[in-house]
């Protein structure tokens, strides 16, 4: 191969690599199970994003530290629990993320703040790389008392499991 041709092939391959590296991450497939709910009796329910979209929707708007506004869209956790047998029982929920991070969500939080199981941020579905496909988010801007580390810790990204006790 001539040096000039080798140069152009290398340049072309570098260009293709950069295109791929800068490409948007693929969103999570809407029909693949995204959330598993473990019931107290040992049964499991799974929800895809498409199934979650069929439930009543809500949105939360939050301001970032830079002053930008984010719009989160999803299912209020309170609404989701109404579609799960014996889940709206006054007990805390044990939530787990894809990276095995876990946190308890007190029942009082669900009733008072109605956190959102979000699957879209600013009109785009979230990929796993972008902390999706599901993110349990609290309405921080609507309740100043939520601006505490305890509540930030309860906003779990890459939410994958809910254990109902």
UniProtKB/TrEMBL annotation:
Q: Which InterPro entries match?
A: OxRdtase_Mopterin-bd_dom (IPR000572), OxRdtase_Mopterin-bd_sf (IPR036374)
Matching entries from Gene3D superfamilies are given as: Oxidoreductase, molybdopterin-binding domain
Domain named Oxidoreductase molybdopterin-binding: residues: 50-139
Q: Which domain of life is it from?
A: Bacteria
Q: What is this protein called?
A: Oxidoreductase molybdopterin-binding domain-containing protein
């Amino acid at each position: 191969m001539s040096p000039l041709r080798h140069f152009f092939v290398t340049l072309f391959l570098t260009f293709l690599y950069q295109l791929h590296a800068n490409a948007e991450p693929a969103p999570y497939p809407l029909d693949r199970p995204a959330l598993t709910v473990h019931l107290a009796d040992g049964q499991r329910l799974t929800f895809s994003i498409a199934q979650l979209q069929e439930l009543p929707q809500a949105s939360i708007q939050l301001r970032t530290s830079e002053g930008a506004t984010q719009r989160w869209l999803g299912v209020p956790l309170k609404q989701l629990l109404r579609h799960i047998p014996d889940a709206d029982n006054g007990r805390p929920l044990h939530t787990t993320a894809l990276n095995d991070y876990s946190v308890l969500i007190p029942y009082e939080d669900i009733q008072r703040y109605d956190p959102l199981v979000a699957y879209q941020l600013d009109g785009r579905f979230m990929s796993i790389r972008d902390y999706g496909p599901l993110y349990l988010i609290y309405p921080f801007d609507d309740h100043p008392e939520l601006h505490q580390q305890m509540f930030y810790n309860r906003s779990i990204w890459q939410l994958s499991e809910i254990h109902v006790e």
